[in-house]
Every structure is written in C-alpha cells, then in structure tokens.
Amino acid sequence: MVYGIGIDIVSKNKIRDALRRNEKAFLKFVFTRKEIEYAHKYQDAVSHLSVFFAAKEAVLKTFGTGWKRGVKLTDIEVSHTLNGKPEINLSGNARKIAQSLGVFRMLISLSFEDSYAIASAVALRPI
After folding, report:
1. Rounded to 10 degrees, what is the CA torsion of 95, 40, 37, 32?
2. CB-based contact 121:106 (threshold 8 Å)
3. Distance (Å, rounded) from C-alpha 49 to C-alpha 42?
4. Model pTM score
5. What is the crossing angle of helices 45-63 and 12-30, to 10°?
6. Who contacts 64 (Cβ-Cβ below 8 Å, separation ≥6)?
7. Are 32 and 79 in contact (CB under 8 A)?
8. Strands (E) located in the chain
9. Closest C-alpha to 45, from 107, 112, 106
10. 20 to 30 Å CA-CA from 107: which of 1, 16, 55, 118?
11. Domains of the chain
12. Rounded Cα–Cα distance for residues 91 and 80 (Å)
C-alpha cells in the first residue's frame, strides 16, 4: 500500500555553486561516502550528485515530515543494484521515521539532463 509520494527537481547549477563555495563541507553534510565515490566515477559528477540530492528531498516528502525530527541528508542514501537500478537505504532518524510510519520499502526513480535533475519516490507500507 502506498503511504506517500514525493518528487523534487534540482538545478544542477545550484549544486555546482554549493560545491564551489565549500566542496568539502557540502559533500560531508549532504552525501555519504558511497554516494560521493559513485558520482566521482563519472566525468560529470555534478549530475549524479544533483540527482542524489533530489532523491533525498523526494524521500523526505514521502514521509510528510520535512526536515523535522532530526533527519540528516546522510540518513538517506542512494545506491544501485548490480543492474543499475537505484535504491534507497535509510539509516538514523530517517529509518526511525519510516519504521514509525510502517514504511518498509522505498521506490525511487532518477533522471537528469543538461540543467536539472529530478527524482520521484514512493513509500510503501504492508497492506
């Protein structure tokens, strides 16, 4: 059963600007080590970082809680299956919120183009 849906779109220039201002602090605040390593495997790391940022925001929207209850962006991690399908891994307060809502699985779809990255998320509960 669907508990919530979320969507977010991010300007890649916004992420690029944040990286220019203070790359180390921005990366540490927003992304996990695995996400950073994954993005930097590609020539255009900004596209991947942007879509990961959009995914984190979309997941928060599925909960209907926003930034409340101490969630950190690093509590929401985007990973990929061996076939390349994106997945969401929750930890910390994001996992606690999902458990309290009965959410057992997150579905995510990611896309980016020249200027923008977009993600949509669906939070599922048992029927």
Report:
1. -30
2. yes
3. 11
4. 0.95
5. 70
6. 4
7. no
8. 2-11, 76-80, 86-90, 105-112, 116-124
9. 112
10. 16
11. 2-124 (3.90.470.20)
12. 16
- Bridge partners (DSSP) listed for residue 8: 119
Identify which of 26, 27, 23 has the alpha carbon closest to the alpha carbon of residue 35: 27
> Two tokens at 78?
């985007």
Query: How confident is the chain (127 residues) per 10-residue block, as mean pLDDT?
Result: 97 98 97 98 97 97 80 96 96 95 97 98 95
Please report the pLDDT score of residue 70 as a whole number: 83
Tokens standing for residue 50: 């942007």
pLDDT at residue 68, as a whole number: 67
Is residue 76 within 8 Å of residue 90, measured between CB atoms? yes
pLDDT score, position 127 = 85
- Nearest CA-CA partner of 61 in 110, 111, 8: 8
